[in-house]
Write a structure and sequence with these properties.
The complex is a heterodimer of chains A (397) and B (286).
Chain A lengths: L1 H10 L6 H12 L7 H12 L6 H13 L6 H7 L2 H11 L2 H9 L2 H19 L5 H6 L11 H6 L11 H4 L14 H7 L5 E10 L1 H10 L8 E7 L2 E7 L8 H14 L2 E7 L6 E3 L9 E3 H7 L5 E5 L6 H5 L13 H11 L3 E5 L10 H9 L4 E3 L2 H12 L6
Parallel strand pairs in A: 3-4, 3-7, 7-8, 8-9
Antiparallel strand pairs in A: 1-2, 5-6
Helix pairs in contact in A: 2-3, 12-14, 12-19
Chain B lengths: L20 H13 L3 E5 L5 H12 L3 E5 L6 H5 E3 L1 H10 L11 E3 L1 H6 L6 E5 L8 H4 L1 H6 L1 E4 L4 E4 L5 E5 L8 H5 L2 E5 L4 H11 L5 H16 L9 H13 L4 H9 L14 H12 L4
Parallel strand pairs in B: 1-8, 1-9, 2-5, 5-8
Antiparallel strand pairs in B: 3-4, 6-7
The chains are: A alpha/beta (397), B alpha/beta (286).
Amino acid sequence: MLLDFFYYLKTNKLPVSIREHLTLLEALDREVIAYSVEDFYFLSRAIYVKHEQNLDLFDKLFGQFFNDSENIPVEKILADIDENWLKSQLLREMTDEEKEAVKAMGGLEELLNRFRQILEEQKEKHEGGNKWIGTAGTSPLGNSGYNPTGIRIGGKGGGKNAVKVWDKREFKNYDDDLELNTRNTKMALRRLRILTREGVEDELNLEETIHKTSENAGLLDIKMQASKQNRVKVLLLLDVGGSMDEYIEECSMLFSSAKYQFKHLEYYYFHNCIYESLWKDNGRRYEDKISTWEVLNKYNKDYKVIFVGDASMSPWELSEPRGSVEHYNEESGLTWLERFKEKFPNLVWLNPINDGYWQYTSTIKQIREWADERMFPLTINGIEKAMKCLKNRKLKF
Amino acid sequence: MAHNSYKNNNFSGTSDYIATRELQTAVNAAIALQRPLLIKGEPGTGKTLLAFEVAKALGKQLFTWHIKSTTTAQQGLYEYDAVSRLRDSQLGDDRVNHIENYVKKGKIWEAFDTDEQSVLLIDEIDKADIEFPNDLLQELDRMEFYCYELKQTIKAKYRPIIIITSNNEKELPDAFLRRCFFHFIRFPDKETMQQIVDVHYPCLDETLLANALKTFFGIREIKNLKKRPSTSELIDWLKLLLVGKVSADDLNDLSRMNEVPPFLGALLKNESDYDLYKALREKGIK
């Protein structure tokens, strides 16, 4: 039954592993929680869910699984009850007064039969109603659900605090935070690291110390050095608007990861292709233009350049002067791209379009040619390869 | 209210800390199964405070390890001070013959080393490098690590209760998450908030509190705020209201007039948020 629940979560795309399931079983075995469905919900949530973006999904699945009447027929519950266990459990929990009451009703056996009868009735009367009280009962912990002390004798009713917490689904909003999903991208960008020693000398330079000390006839002479840090410089050029709107999510993921990973990051935006001006702020793209010449001159050739764009446009936007759909451009896009290639030996183009479709667009082919086959798909794998390529130009895609 | 549960290691909040049932379940399960508990939630909902309160309620010693961007996992275990040993050897100091003089214990080691179970808080784990949590897998899982300098395995005498907080600046690796219990502290609803405020200001005028809470939750409902005020800000604001001797009617009167409530700066700390709220008030939207 719990295993069913585990597989239900797993098939519905909640990332859970055997390890968590075993943890849950262990927790139940040690009787960490009181016998109540709500506590079971809290416990299983703390174990199965590892991220707030999954909380809503878990709430949904929990509700579905334990509400689904077809999933857990009453016969199955009955079959699952180990009678002896139930009896011993009951006797342990009951007060003397309650035991008297049970006797008055014809003994425990009778009570259990009566209880089963009630369960059957409940099935007929409340189809889809309070079923969760009963269903939760099949798990070894939720027995308060069909514990006769709950139904008959008037102890704490299993169904009393029947506010279904999971049905409130209060975590809906945490579902779509962008920053949450960037770990993989950050790890991929890590491939591009150029470690150099610069700045404060805070590390012991062992080799130099030994060398100097022996020169000093054994008198200690400590040498320090700066620690290694990633000082790679990156120029990021992003295509925005038009056909790129579809890929906003991927691009912002890349952008926020790059901002985190590279200390020396410069970025500019363009539309479709590079022409004589770029801009930094999309809200003010017509007021705050920066001349492309300025960008070309400002950065040294040790900058690694990453273009991000779908490279899909009309052929004349790329190859003809005055070909831009937006403005009057004196020189063709390709001329400008060539200037970038001349200035920056290390450049790659990341394309959010699936690489299977690249062959069908002529401008993609042209730009790939221009980039000497250094166009990579905007996927984790592609980014990883692109970062390697920025260090070793011989790598192609 | 909680000190009676001292013996059986059961946490149910303290006299100054209101813990919801779900938080209690998560904490108690983590304690019973000896797994680290990862706590996330909006800023100001008492993530860090939880460890302090757990330690207090259970009467245990607390070790806090605050993580910065430069913290490494090794620092939590121990640090070997080779330079001062080298120096001591030059000066002929006797200490130099015993390497343990130069091994400085980190917070994790300290927590492993106590003669009874302790509480270890690893605060803001997301501040560190993204590899940081992976470096602690073994240590948190088996509660032991190997000290190369002393050539011995350090094992926890009593597995400490480990509470880890995160502010979501970085995502944590799956392998790490699988070893933890997870709880997301939700922003308290009105009832819980009332309890929390009662704990802090037991003799607060009821109507003042009701009006203040109304204003507070009203502000939280505004969309597009850069930083929504949280519990800790509400507590501060109430304190200011008390010190400033603002009466319940003052707050109420103001809500009729188009003025901002007194000491609003305690709730809205961002200038643009402040202006936004003011503009909304002037238009007569609460």
